[in-house]
Every structure is written in structure tokens, then in C-alpha cells.
């Protein structure tokens, strides 16, 4: 029945003098707003370094721009600056990690979303893919151009490794740069961190220079690499270093550069280097999230962890296993440290500055809350798997 008091407000859309409900925001615009809010929040985090923060601010501009003209020049200048300062890999890795977390939050319903959640998640996934493509293309393009300036004293080997990581043909790279390109490679993704003594008297040079020189000395110059002061990618020709010697090589270059180095290894034909490098960095991400000890990890050592991080029904089941520990962050930290310490309670206690009896008490509490005992191997498998899944959730403890 018509209500005579039901009058449209001034400026509101009305049909036959009756107000029309405002249109629901389009999923893409809702997703754009959510992504922008989460990126802005992350950019304000004091733990984010300046280059990564600048990249996040640029990503926000790209997200809201009406056309490429609005951001192209600024993005190109920033990408060139990062390439010149050997920051490209770190910036792109940070952006990918942040956007992955943003998408996880939206998909898990951690953000306020109007009805039509599924459509918003799909729209968010498309926007994130477009954002990654736009920014990564600009950054990697600038990085490639920086490497390709061989006439200005740049090493053609840098240009060659950049081309290999883009998936270009090995035969074309051989012809273009006059370099020997092997048929098979061991691809290393690595993270480097300064040691407590790195500021004392030692080899002169920047961290990147020290790492490059150490690698060249120990491989006879056969290895190719793209690296920054915090990590990168190394391509080892299959015949250069014996499989059992790769771990020693990683330790040696870290020692020579006075840095802690953690690396992951994937073996591949030259034609598949781009995909192998991506997989190696995914494995490195797993190692870092699980806080595993420094060293070298092969795909066979992380196959279970890698598979558990892929989307599937097992993720939800395993994630629920640790739900009872959500209000007990100290128990989660103890479980993570105990597994990383090879189930050695004394090492766990030393790492966490706890008495071994306290470690035992916490492990018993974990068993009481979850029903799984860390000292029983069948239960341990479930706990470790659940911890892997938990480590890839947003807002993990």
C-alpha cells in the first residue's frame, strides 16, 4: 500500500514518487576499495622498508587509475631506480607476498563485504592479477634494460640470466651474448642476511659484490646470478658442481660474504628455467615462513609442505586442527620451534629461553587442546602438516 509519508529525499532517484533503493556497488568496485584499504594499511606498517613502501603506494595509484597515462611515468621512474640500486627482486617479492595476503584476507571473509561475497572474491582475484602483471612487467622490464646496457660496462652475463628468467630461448641468448649456455641447470633461490660480525674488518665491498665474487671464485665463473643484498637467484650449470657439493657451496659463499644464506634447489632443463626459478622461490618462502634452520633445501625435502600450500579441501581440514590453539600463541610458537629443533626438547628450550620442563608442559597442553601428541609420529605428521597450512594463513601467530 502506498504510504504518503514515503517521499524521496531531495536528489534521490524515484519512480512514481516512490524512492528506489540505491544500487548495490559492483563487485569490482567493492574489491578495488577493499584491496586499496588493505594495501594502505600495509604501507603504513613500520616494518616495511622504504622501497617496498614506495612500491605499495604506486600499486595503490595503479589500482585506482583511470588509465595507464595516470601512473606510467611515475612507475617507470621508480622501476628504473630499483633496478639501478639492485632492489628489483626484493620489491617484486614483497609486493607478491602482500597481494597474496590481501587476497587471502578477502577470500577468508576477514574484511567487511556486502552480499555477493563470491563475486567480490572473483573480482579481487582479477584485480590482483592485473596489478601484479602491471607492476611486475614494469619492474622486470627496467631490470632487464639495466642488465642489457653492456656498452656502459655492464656484464652481458647479467643480461643473459635476465633473459633466461624471462623464459627466452637458450639458442637466441647464446647468439645474442656469445655465452655458453648449458643444457641443464640447478636453480637456487636464496635469502641472505648479514651476520653479527659483518660490520667488522673483513672483505671490502657491498654485500652484492661480495656474494658475486664468492660465487665466481667457487664456480670458476660458470654460474649465472641475479641478486640483491637480501637474496636472489643463482643458475648453476649441471656439470659445474656435484649434487652433494651444492650445500657446501652455499655455506662457502655465505661465509666469504659474511652473511647467513638459506637456499632452495630445483633441477631443470634450460628451457624450463623460468618455471623452476618461480618454484624455487616458492620453496624458499615455505622455508622462511616455517622458520626452518639455515641451509640448503631440495624439492624432495619440501614436497609435502609445497603440496599442502596448494589450494584444496585438505587445507581447511588441517587448518581446523590448530584452531584450539588460536588463543594460545605461546603454544603455537613452541610447537613451531620444537618441530624446527628436530623434536629435541633441550634445543627447543635453548631457542626459546625456556626450561625443558616448561617445554614438556606446553607440549602436553597442545595434546590436551588438539588431541594430537607431538611425541607420537602419526600425530606429529598431522601437527606438522597443520602448522604448514597455518603458516600460510593471514594474521598467523
UniProtKB/TrEMBL annotation:
Give every PucR C-terminal helix-turn-helix domain span. Answer: 331-387
Q: What is this protein called?
A: Putative transcriptional regulator
Gene3D superfamilies documented for this protein? PucR C-terminal helix-turn-helix domain (1.10.10.2840)
Entries under PANTHER family matching the protein: CARBOHYDRATE DIACID REGULATOR
What segment(s) does the record annotate as region Disordered?
1-28
From what organism does this protein derive?
A: Nocardia nova SH22a
> Taxonomically, which superkingdom?
Bacteria
Q: Which InterPro entries match?
A: CdaR-like_regulators, PucR_C-HTH_dom, PucR_C-HTH_sf
> One Pfam family name from the record?
HTH_30
Coiled-coil blocks? none
